[in-house]
Amino acid sequence: MKNFFLSSIGKKITMGLAGLFLCLFLVVHLSVNLLMVKNDGGQMYMKACSFMRSNLIIKGIEIVLFGGIFLHMLYGIILQIQNWFARPERYYATPATKTSFFSKYMIHTGLVILSFLIFHFFHFFFVKTGLVSPPEGPAIVNGPHDFYHMAVNLFRQPFYSWTYILFILFMGFHLGHALQSAFQTLGVGGPRISAVLKVVGWIYAVGITAGFIIIPVYFMYFY
């Protein structure tokens, strides 16, 4: 079993499973975040945040989430480095016509997403854990865990919002190929199935991207 996880195929399967888990997480995360644009002063969103902060099951899932992020990125970087070293020997060479634009740049968009996660964690997750002090200001009205008003403060700043939107677009490009690639790694293939997965993958990517972009646009222009 140890040799399997250290093998190339083992790393790819682990990365694929972790990627699918992260895709599912994004749906849940977006669903909660969209509560911010509900016209109730953030009450529903704050209730959801309070529930997630105090629920032991959610805390357990959070640990799994960070494990999934770590494994997905670690194995992605390792496999890409192995691919670069093997390329002169053509072990991983594929015809140029079969390599999509997005698959060529998965590692690059992945590294951009990693930088976005660090950027994002400093503003929210690290505040929640106490590693970073919450921002001070009149809009923070309900203590250090008032994530709604913290988000309002941040998204009302054009620089922050447009930086966030740019990162989300990179994530969308990554997701456009990720879903199809993950299923193919797990052996779900064939011309028809691959075509369906490609369409579903892009529908998912566009939906997730648009959903996250709605939030800063709302606070910049309609709040």
Please provide a written account of the structure.
With 223 residues, the chain is mainly alpha-helical. The chain has a single domain, classed as Up-down Bundle (3 helical TM bundles of succinate and fumarate reductases). 75% of the residues lie in helices and 0% in strands. The protein has 10 helices and no strands. Helix 2 (8-33) packs across helix 4 (56-86) and helix 4 packs antiparallel against helix 6. The longest helix has 31 residues, at 56-86. The radius of gyration is 19 Å and the shape is globular. The termini are far apart. Mean pLDDT is 84; it is low at 90-94.
Concise structural overview:
With 223 residues, this protein is an all-alpha fold.
